[in-house]
Amino acid sequence: MTTTAPDPSGQATPVRQLRLVIAAEDYAAALAFYRDTLGLPQQEAYSGGDGAEVTILDAGRATLEIANAAQVRMIDRVEANGKPSLKLRVAFEVDDARTATAAAVDGGAQLVAEPRETPWRSLNSRLNAPGGLQLTLFEELD
User: Which of 51, 111, 115, 131 has the most C-beta neighbours closer than 10 Å?
Assistant: First the structure.
């Protein structure tokens, strides 16, 4: 039996949650960055044998953005002066992109591109974060 969750339009969807798993070499640094610096609330944490650790953080509503190569190149031009993004880039919507970007850098992220206004009216920055993920922090301006 397939369990479905309603989407915003009222239609049922078989997927209930998107969970992105980071296999972080420095677990403590990655956890501190995402939980403490970005402020993602901790939902669950488990420990296992041989030092196994996992923490599940709440990242709010999840969407999956699929872009073709031309769109990725355009986003790279707009968001990062043409610096190519990694194959996987995670975008977090924040209330204040400038403040969140500064906090992310202070928390251990490497700045790729300062916040800048995009043609689609958001303020976007790009960072390489602890745990090996590339991030976009974006603030909707409208």
Answer: 115
First to last CA, the chain: 42
56, β-bridge pairs: 44
CA–CA separation, 47 vs 38, rounded Å?
23
DSSP state of 36: I
What type of residue sits at position 1? M
- pLDDT tens by residue, 37-86: 999 999 999 999 999 999 999 999 999 999 999 999 999 999 999 999 99
Q: Encoding tokens for residue 29?
A: 């640094």
Distance of CA 87 to the CA centre of its chain: 13
State how far the alpha carbon of 28 is from the alpha carbons of 33, 57, 65, 123, in Å. 9, 14, 29, 29
Provide the whole-model pTM.
Answer: 0.85
Can you tell me which residue has the tokens 């301006």?
141
